[in-house]
Amino acid sequence: MRRFHSLTDVSGIKVGHASDLKALTGCTVILCEEESVGAVDIRGTATGTRQIDALTHLHLVDKIHAILLAGGSAFGLDATGGVMTYLEEKGKGFDVIKTKIPIVPSAVIFDFGMGDFRVRPDHKMGYQACLNASKKVEEGSVGVGTGATVGKLFGIERAMKGGVGTASTGGPKGLMVGALVVVNAFGDVLDPESKQLLAGARISQKSFELSNSSKWIKRGVTRKRFGAIPPFESTAFNTTLGVIATNANFTKKELHQVAQIAHLGLAKVISPFHTTFDGDLVFALSLGKKKADVNTVGLLGEVVLIESVKRAIIKAKGFGIIPAYQDIVV
Q1: Per the omega criterion (within 30 degrees of 0), is the bond before 230 cis?
Q2: What domains can you pick out in the chain, each with its CATH number?
Q3: CB atoms within 10 A of CB 52
Q4: pLDDT of residue 132
Q5: Residue 299: Cβ within 10 Å count
Q6: What local confidence, expressed as pLDDT, does residue 229 receive?
Q7: Strand 13-20 versus strand 25-42 pairing type
Q8: pTM of the shown model
Q9: By C-alpha distance, which of 270, 239, 233 is closest to 157?
Q10: C-alpha distance from residue 115 to each of 15, 72, 81, 237, 322 (Å)
Q11: pLDDT tens-digit profile of 28-42?
């Protein structure tokens, strides 16, 4: 199995970031140069989304034109308007005679713990992300990953930096599967092969030693959902958002099955995962004409999601606020 570099190794995709490095928030757009079949698998209980209904198999619309991932919690969904404006100007969208309406399913992360929560991704930022879109994908603390964090059992003061990562791999007969992930998890991130923690909750604010959140929770250590006391008040919501794409030809139903299978990969690299504080979901895109088995693509999707999570952590920067993987690994 040959390893490649990013989601954009799947033909017909570009990725663009827009970042506010002062407020520490941003957004990331995945542009489909041609229409794409889309699907989504939602597991989280704290999701913030827009136009997700277009991904259901009974919906009138059968293709989508972009996916937007944004910071700013539900406020950040405003950035979708900028993506729609950009695509409408390019003449792309669902034809309603008078114009074309771009179909842009969107999802957000809660990144208010890092920067200025009063600044959120908006129409202008969504449009700028489209202008920045290319085949080269920057990773780490950029775009939607600018303010992402992980390991928040003990609050943001003992958390570590998350971010954006991407990877791809080839399969049989020219098959290609790619992924992009923003890691903003409540839980810790580990290497599934060595089982060693890469990033997560630390034993104290001044320490770089990781505490293993799952073990503490199993012992009965919890935190209140909405953080009644410091330092929990700014870390109520967490989300890992994934996008997988393939050059295989699938229906919406088949693609949903691909997303379901691939989604399980995230649980192998994030622990605890799908907690009551997380809004996790995985989008899936089918852009090609290759014939492939749902299980094959789903398992390859699992591989690249795992690799994307690891790259998001390794490439992240803490901006001098909280530690990143690069700060603790000598």
Answers
A1: no
A2: 7-328 (3.60.70.12)
A3: 17
A4: 98
A5: 17
A6: 34
A7: antiparallel
A8: 0.93
A9: 233
A10: 24, 10, 23, 15, 11
A11: 999 999 999 999 999
Nearest to 83 by CA among 60, 62, 59, 107: 107
90: how many CB neighbours lie within 10 A of its CB? 14
Look up residue 241 and give its amino acid.
L
Helix (H, G, I), strand (E, B) or coil at 145: helix
DSSP 167-197: EEEE-GGG-EEEEEEEEE-SSEEE-TTT--E
pLDDT value at residue 226: 34
> CA–CA distance from 251 to each of 79, 171, 255 (Å)?
28, 19, 6
Q: Which amino acid is at 50?
A: R
Q: Which amino acid is at 256?
A: H
Q: CB neighbours of 198 closer than 8 A, spacing ≥ 6? A: 189, 190, 191, 310, 313, 314, 325
Which span out of 205-214, 227-236, 319-328 was modeled with the highest average pLDDT?
Answer: 319-328
Tell me the mean pLDDT in the region 162-188: 96
- Secondary structure in 3-state letters for 31-92: EEEEEEEEEEEECCCCCCEECHHHHCCCCCCCCEEEEEEECCHHHHHHHHHHHHHHHHHCCC
Instruction: Give yes or no for residue 330 having a pLDDT over 70.
Output: no
Instruction: Output DSSP code: residue 322.
Output: S
